[in-house]
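pls design
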């Protein structure tokens, strides 16, 4: 039995607690500082999670963030990061003075960041922030892949990928979380796997735009029936660019063709917020108009990632080698109409 603390009571952090509990681990789910009300709702309603619409396991401990200090005194074996990418600095500030040397950090969060004006994976950012606080030699793993939280929470068969620079650490985590419906592969390409998990959100917007981009002359009825040719082309081009992107930033290209790349891209492209944003952009709307008229209160991970890292990527990469990436970055960052140079 392992002592596992999950910080972040959103959909994915909460769903991840289920296979952990079913493997007979002691699991505590802690809300962030902005989730106090969510924690109260869950606890007062017999552990019914309002976003997942399922009851969390009866053995799951659920607490507010003010209990973290006391819980960390019990020396958790695994500390799971379930916060949003913008909350990484907050997470490190919360746990830095409470970490034990043998505590393993597991990253559920997908995203990239800019550190010292350079593109950085979130695991590298955490490592640097901890190092700045005098904390070294902390093992960080990332779990990535085509895993929608609601599917996992409902025990729908799901495959995922555990990446760590230390393969033995990845294999240990594999044993801890695997169930008959939640299976895990392992990888030592932490860098490449994280890159894939982030940029697939950008490319899923491009693929989501397939219908609108499929023709300049045919009407919407025709395009809605026959746009799959265009979608297939954009999927091919997206995967090709992802491979070059991962290589450029030091990851292994093979990771693009696995669960964290192609697998996760498929899930994001067939539905969800990134694909929905892409649909509007493909129909000719400007990004700011889409946010204002249709998706004002909806977080679109790919768009937020583009806003955060887009300017740096546009400086780093050759525009001719990444036409899809550059088109969507121009669209999001500069509020230009989405156009693809076929």
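designed seq:
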């Amino acid at each position: 039995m392992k002592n596992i603390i999950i910080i972040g009571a959103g959909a994915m952090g909460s769903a991840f607690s289920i296979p952990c509990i079913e493997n007979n681990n002691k699991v505590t789910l802690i809300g962030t500082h902005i989730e106090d009300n969510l924690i109260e709702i869950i606890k007062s309603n017999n552990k019914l999670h309002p976003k997942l619409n399922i009851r969390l396991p009866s053995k799951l401990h659920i607490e507010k963030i003010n209990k973290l200090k006391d819980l960390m005194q019990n020396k958790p074996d695994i500390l799971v990061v379930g916060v949003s990418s913008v909350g990484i600095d907050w997470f490190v500030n919360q746990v830095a003075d409470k970490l034990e040397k043998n505590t393993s950090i597991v990253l559920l969060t997908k995203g990239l960041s800019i550190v010292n004006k350079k593109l950085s994976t979130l695991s590298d950012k955490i490592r640097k922030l901890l190092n700045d606080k005098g904390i070294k030699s902390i093992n960080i793993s990332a779990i990535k892949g085509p895993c929608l939280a609601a599917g996992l929470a409902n025990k729908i068969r799901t495959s995922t990928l555990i990446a760590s620079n230390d393969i033995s650490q990845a294999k240990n985590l594999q044993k801890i979380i695997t169930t008959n419906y939640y299976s895990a592969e392992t990888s030592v390409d932490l860098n490449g796997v994280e890159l894939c998990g982030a940029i697939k959100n950008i490319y899923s917007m491009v693929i989501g735009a397939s219908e609108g981009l499929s023709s300049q002359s045919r009407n919407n009825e025709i395009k809605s029936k026959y746009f799959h040719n265009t979608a297939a082309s954009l999927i091919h081009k997206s995967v090709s660019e992802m491979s070059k992107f991962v290589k450029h930033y030091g990851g292994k290209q093979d990771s693009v063709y696995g669960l964290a790349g192609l697998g996760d891209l498929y899930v994001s492209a067939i539905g969800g917020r990134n694909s929905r944003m892409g649909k509007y952009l493909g129909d000719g709307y400007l990004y700011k108009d889409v946010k204002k008229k249709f998706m004002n209160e909806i977080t679109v991970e790919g768009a937020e990632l583009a806003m955060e890292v887009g300017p740096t990527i546009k400086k780093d990469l050759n525009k001719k080698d990444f036409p899809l990436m550059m088109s969507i970055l121009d669209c999001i960052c500069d509020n230009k109409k989405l156009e693809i140079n076929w």
